[in-house]
Amino acid sequence: MPERKEIRKTALQSLKKHYWLFVVSCLLAAILGTEYTNSLQAFQLQKRVEDRKSDSAPALGVAQRSGEMSVLNDLINGNLDGAIASLQHRIDVYTGKDTYIGDLELGHSDGIIASVVNEVASGALLMSILTTIDTMIGTRNIKGILLALLGFAAILLFWLFIGNVYRAAYARMFLEGRIYGKVPFSRFLFLFRLKKHIKASLSMAVYVLLQYVWLITLVLYPVKRYAYLLVPFLVAENPDLSPMEAIRLSSRMMKGHKWEAFLLELSILPWKLLSIATGGLAGFLFANPYREAVMAEYHAKIRALSMKEIPNLRDRLKDRYLFEIPSRSAIAGAYPDAVRVADMTLPKPEPRKGFWGFMEKYLGVVFSFDEKEKENRAYLSLSLRKEEYADTLACRTYPVRLYPLPVKEKQKKTEGAGYMRNYTLPSVIMLFFLICIFGWLWEVVLHLMQTGEFVNRGTLHGPWLPIYGGGCAAILAILFKLRKKPLVEFFMIIVLCGIIEYFSSWILEVTHDGQRWWDYSGYYLNLNGRICAEGLLVFGIGGAAFVYVLAPWVDDLILRIRSSVLWGICIALLAVFIADVVYSSFVPNTGKGITSSAAAPEDTEQQAGT
């Protein structure tokens, strides 16, 4: 009992040090369907609108028993009719025909979060397999079979290479947070930078699939669940472990500790119950990051004990500085260039004057990649390196160079590179169009997978959705001054995107006789059907990924294009886009699957963006 109290106390201290980082880490896990998906309930609730009930909706009794694993439970109990009814209900949920459970919708299929969570969340991967098989068997239409296979392939790839990798990545965030004062956001990409993300994803896939297998036995599942408890943390420390090696190692380390782990989880059960009682809000704000911090502390305890008991364990778990602060001499040996960089100085470039001086200072936008901008980036790169080295030398952050697996020098040079950079005008234009086109592809494919119909989504006739590109451009420029504070940036992205989406909806409705291109009426925490909490959470995550990862990477690629060619592409794209805007102002893109009338929200097909 005292040990459990000490673990919880230490975990609470860790949570206090990194509160918002840990909260966002668990929130992202919930959005990706990796863990803690119940915390999204408060954002996914919809009030029942009777007029929207489908004639093909199942009876209430079936709906009430439509939990993620109801099909499997019915099969185990020999209830074949119940399994078929439950499976059909899940298919109806996935295809949007029915999503209601009682008077509230707990897992709707509309919107970006639901489309991912319904398929990837715990237990739903098995449902996706059954749904795909049922769709293929139940249709003679080749298009339907191909769409079913395409949808399942997309789900499987997302689960394998995004959700699974992230599960190990954020386990590492919590482990580093135990003893280090700062954990960089770039650590989310640690496995990718090591080129170990594929191996880590396979290990996590085996970890999840084995739990499915043992779940069938029911009786043995709790035993195996605690036997495999340490796998995410083991993969986070050493992604070079083979899948079965990670499983066997966790089982060996947990031998004799399963009951202890059960009691530890039982001791934090009140927080879980509070999370359920508040529709997931308490879990989102405290219970989830607290539990993960407790599990990280427990893993550290078991690891320390196992080092003494299991032969050759040190050969497989070599990342000692993930669990102890390195000595000054060890840091100095790994970073011999840190002192030299600390002594280096570059004169701060003279600020520009006039219009482009204003644009650079307040919006981070310059006209072209000229000599002055090259000087500015060299100065910025050196400043970021000095700041990074200062944190490492002071033992405030994990020393990446002391990691036991090799980190390529090229990756080190780009690690702190340039999310604080200025963007040239051609880069902003190209980023705008790339995100517009990506948004259009995303919504068209999503609608195709859900309904089997190709629909040209959006207000315009061309293959672009300007709200996506415009939102990303606004994030880069308007929030330029906040980029050094990722958590503040994240919340301000939510605010900014909410303003853009709300007023875009209002302007379109006013100027197009009440037509709506998206409507969140009925969603929990929606404002006049124009914005909702669920969509804004996705914008916050996606916007942060754009600012800190995607935009700098794409900008580097764009700058490789010869200036004259780049300007030619930009002018051509702008000319076609402006022509589309003018034409669409007279002949807007409307129709089934695209627009609805604001006067009849009960008939709305809820959509994610223009």
Distance between the termini: 55 Å
Q: Describe the global form.
A: globular
Which residues form runs of ≥5 with pLDDT under 50? Answer: 45-72, 93-124, 409-417, 599-610
- Integer average pLDDT: 78
Helix/strand structural class: mainly alpha
Q: Main beta sheet, described? A: 2 strands, antiparallel
Tally of alpha and pi helices? 28
Number of strands: 8
The helical percent reads 55-70%
**Share of residues in strands:** under 5%
Strand arrangement in the largest pleated sheet: 1-2
Number of domains: 3
Topology:
Elements: H1 2-17, H2 19-31, H3 41-44, E1 46-47, H4 60-64, H5 70-76, H6 80-95, E2 104-105, H7 112-120, H8 124-138, H9 142-179, H10 190-193, H11 197-215, H12 221-227, H13 231-237, H14 243-253, H15 258-267, H16 269-277, H17 281-309, H18 313-316, H19 328-334, H20 337-343, H21 354-363, E3 365-366, H22 371-393, H23 409-415, E4 423-424, H24 425-451, H25 466-478, H26 486-511, E5 515-516, E6 526-527, E7 531-532, H27 533-558, H28 563-586, E8 596-597
Parallel strand pairs: 3-4
Antiparallel strand pairs: 1-2, 5-8, 6-7
How would you describe what is shown here?
The chain is mainly α and 610 residues long. The protein folds into three domains: 319 residues, no CATH class; 66 residues, no CATH class; 181 residues, no CATH class. It has 28 helices and eight strands. The strands form four sheets. Strands 1-2 form a two-stranded antiparallel sheet. A two-stranded parallel sheet has the order 3-4. Strand 6 and strand 7 form a beta hairpin. Helix 7 crosses helix 8, helix 8 packs antiparallel against helix 9 and helix 11 crosses helix 14. The longest helix is centred in the first third of the chain and has 38 residues. The protein is globular. The C terminus is likely disordered.
